[in-house]
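User: structure tokens for this one?
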Amino acid sequence: MVGKLKVEIIVNDRCNLCSVCVKLCVTHVYEVVNGRLSIDKEYCIGCKACEILCPQKAIKISISDEGLEVVKYKPL
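Assistant:
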């Protein structure tokens, strides 16, 4: 693959900083800093675990594969 997934992370006002997303994110996209949720979407792999498991349903993940090119190789 060439390119990168474009991931948009939207957290609405239902977020109560429960930190479920912080604890479960394998790429450490989320962090609570000074009483606010900090998001580093550059590292998001688009698994949507945070969206699915958020108790408040406060997270929405949008993924675009625009710019990705799949390269197939012939078997040897």
